[in-house]
Structures are given as C-alpha cells and as structure tokens.
Write the structure tokens for this entry.
Amino acid sequence: MRIAIVGGGPAGAYLGYRLASRGIEVAIFDDSHPREKPCGGGLSSFTLRKFPILRELPSGNVGGRKIFLVSPSGREAMVEGVEEGWNVSRAKLDGFLLERATGEGVRLIKERVIALNALKSDVGWKIKTSKRSYRADMIVGADGVNSIVRRTLVGPFRKEDLCFCYGYFTNVTKELEDFEGIMKFFRGMMGYAWLFPRETDCSIGIGTAVENQKRARKELEIFLKKYAGNAKIISTWGALLPSARTAGFFRQPASGSNWILIGDAAGHVNPVTGEGILYALWSASLACDALERGEPGMFDALWRKEYGWDMVKGAETRSLFYNHLGLELSIWLAQRSRTFGEFLYDSINSEIEGKNFTKCLIKKLPSSLIECMHAKPS
C-alpha cells in the first residue's frame, strides 16, 4: 500500500478522504471506530466555517450561539455571538467522516496495529496487526493519545503534557434545553467543567491537569448537582488527552522522510481550551498537502506556519488565562457588557487568532467599559 494511516478518528478519516479523492492509494487501520468517545463534542464556529464538509453531517448535532460562563466564585454570565457552534455525537461525526473516506476508495482494515518497524534503507514500513503483517511506503499516526506510531517514532507523551478528563453522558432533560453550553472555571485549578447538550444525550465533564484528578471528581459532582440535578446518568467515562504544558513541547518533530503524526497523536490540541477536533482536521488537511507533494517532512513547516503560533502562545499563557482574578473580572464584565460577552464568545469559538488576541482585547475594552458604566446593578 502507498500510505497507511493508523487510526480512523476525525484526523485519520479526513486525511484518508482527502488523499483518496486525489487518487492516492490509502488504507486505514482501525478496529474500533466509529464509537462514542469521552469528549465534549464541541465544534467551534471557526471549525464549521473552515471545514464545510461538517455541514453535511446528517444528524447528531445541536447548534447554538450562546455559552453560559461561571466564574470560580460562582458569578454567571450568558455570552452570545454571531456565528453558530455545534455540539456533536462523536459516534455520528466519526462515522460520517469514515464513511466519506471509504466512499472515496479508502481501504478500511479493521485490525489493531501492535507493532511498527522501519524497513531497511528507509524504504517503507512493516505493520504488524493482531492477525497479520502489511507493508506501506509511508505511515501516518492518527491513533490518539496512546499512539503506537508516536511511541515508536518520537516516544510517548510525558505525564506533564497530558490532562485528565472525567465525566458522564446523560439524558437531555428540560432544564438542560435552555443552554447551548455551560463552562465552569475553578480557583487554583487550570481547566474547566462543561455541560454540552447534544441531539440525543448530554456530555457533562471536567478536564484538568493529571495531578488534580481527586479534586476534579469532587468539583464535577458539585457542578452536576447544581446545573443538571435531574439528569439521568447513562454512562461514566474517563480519559487522558494531550495538553502541552510548555512551549518547548512544540519543538518536537511531527514528521520525517516517510512518516507524519496528526491530531492527538501529534499533541495538536489547544493548550488553553482543549479544542481538538479543529486541529485533527486542520493537521490532516496539511498532511494531505505534504503527502500529495511526496514530501511528508514538510508537514512540520506547514502546521507551524498555519497554527503553530497559537499552540506555542497557548502553552505560554495558559496559567494567565486561568488566573482566578482575571476570570472573575472577565465574567463580571460579560455580565454588564454585550461587547465584552461577544469577545469572550469569539475567543472560545476560535474566532480570534492567538496572535491577535491582545490587539482585539484593547480594541473592545473602551466600548465594554462604557457599557458597564451604563449597565443596571446586578
């Protein structure tokens, strides 16, 4: 086979679809997709605009233009934007993208890859599954946080570059239908709890540093009782996700002469918001460009140019973003200023590039402060 993709989630499936539509021979190795995955399932408005194929998703999504924010002290503000974001079922999303890939001729091999070895003279790869062995010219790791491709080529993630996510899938009760989404922040703990209603269920969870697992579980119980007390728990889940703690993480290579890592396997998840589906698709798109040119090693230059700055800056400023005083002030402003609320909404929905964040904030502040002065006391 020409190109072997390990992993059939959004990154692997979308890459397979893009390559096959260009007449390139592709196989995807995956023994589990599509499936529901521990994930909020949020698609930002920027993601929907950048990847129009998502608009063709036949079912499994709920849209909205409002996000309910809760500060560490419990201060609440509803922020609203112009562009719509979606909450999606990962089973529906992943299945849709995988179906589009196989429809273009991608060969889906429903086997788990258990070993990977470079052939002599750098001419390709031997891929061993639980059933047999295969050969490929090039290999792409799209197999998530526990990527066997990543472990083989650059080593596993360090503990400090992972975050712990824990939560529930629940039914969607009447009290949840009033919200497109809720995000609750905490004092002394980076990360947030979320509640995202979807088409047939609701994703309620929390994400934070691995060392905060015990506290995170307690905080989630409090959050669940307050904002979804009547919800019926369908299932409980837990997972690890990439979350680079330092900018140095992004100096690691994600490609070579005959290999590429994309999506979670590359660690390309926003260090501040935890948004991953956007970068799964974005990295897949750039990997397609590199592979189509026959130069997989150029993938690193492509992603660093397109979204690398946001990754690096996110890792550098994450602690500043989650400063509890800053969160209290931001949500206090959002209570009193529609302009500032729109700014927060756009920030969460990836509508503001990291390199333009400060410039945009300075531009919005005068109007926001004037609106605050004329706002009625809460």
About this structure: The domain at 42-88+159-242 is CATH 3.30.9.100 (D-Amino Acid Oxidase; Chain A, domain 2).
